[in-house]
Amino acid sequence: MTSDLISTPVSFEPEFIAGIKKVFEELIVFNQLLGLKITSLLPERVTARIDMRNDLVGHFACNRIHGGVISAGLDAMGGLAVMAAIGARHMDEPVQHRLQRFAKLGTIDLRVDYLRPGIGEWFELRAEVMRLGSRVASTRMEFLGADGKLLSTAAAAYIVS
């Protein structure tokens, strides 16, 4: 995330982090189905992990994670990055009020580039906000193998009003 998004360093409260994890990992049922687990939540970058499971493997590609799982994971991560950026922008508000801001968040556009097959025991997903406007946020995301190789990239726009 560019430095002009947040003018002063921000540290999220434990209650905010717990609230975002609950929303992202439990209340968004599709994220729960994917097994997305947040590993780092900072205003400038978020990371998560997906462990390989038999039900995430493509029908014809043995031990390869399905492209739809990759796309859905990257989209979810872009949304998470926007949540973190919104939370950082409104640190003057109570935690619960900041968490309620995510109710209207939605994907406008998503582009995914598949660079290599998704083969591995687990995968790391990263995302950052490139621009956070009053109505639209632009993000950039990465999907990496356990060995650190870049497998897919994505860019997306989200409605934040």
TrEMBL record:
- Taking every annotated instance into account, which residue ranges of this chain make up the domain Thioesterase? 65-150
Q: Which GO terms describe its molecular function?
A: acyl-CoA hydrolase activity
UniProt keyword list:
Hydrolase
Query: Pfam families attached here?
Result: 4HBT
The organism sits in which domain of life? Bacteria
UniProt keyword Hydrolase present: yes
Q: What is this protein called?
A: Thioesterase
Organism expressing this protein natively: Rhodoferax antarcticus ANT.BR
